Amino acid sequence: MIDRSACRGKGLDVVPLSDTEMRVIATLRDTSVALDDPEDVELIHDLRLEATITVPDLVIREVSGHAEHQPYDQCALTVAPLAKLRGLSLQRGYRRQVMELLGGTQGCSHFLTLALELSAANVLSIYLRMRAQVRNTPENRADGTWARAGLQVEPGLMNACLALAANSPVQRRALDGTSTDGD
Fold first, then answer.
1. pTM
2. Beta bridge pairs of residue 86
3. Closest to 145 measured CA to CA, from 160, 158, 133, 157
4. Could you give the CA distance from residue 150 to residue 131 in angstroms, rounded to a whole number?
């Protein structure tokens, strides 16, 4: 019987450097713990991908990988291919390009996971730019102020998901300022 559990922890931090750049740090840490002894922890992977990304076009200007712990000596060779991400935009088509550049034996599946995770920086950067304009409060969400700021920052938020569909109560409030209870 298997006598250990495994856990993957991932993180993504987005830190503005200026109005036109942000620093994105993606982390991945895999561990295994003995079921009968929570103090018996084995580190499997501990990786970090750092990128400087331009705003609002979301182009990767600088990128570096850091392996604090990988299981094999050959894994060290997987850091260099990350430089291929430089110049890519996190917008449409990014995931496909990353798979082509780093997938399979061209890299490390764990660094690939982190490179794909960078695309979430788009959503977080939109939030930060919205938050610079208006506070994210229940009142501002209810009266449409928050969604209106979102559309100003990123018009592509229209129809981005169910809640932001063009005919949704959220978008109606954003566009005409009317409040609708219960959504």
1. 0.86
2. none
3. 133
4. 9
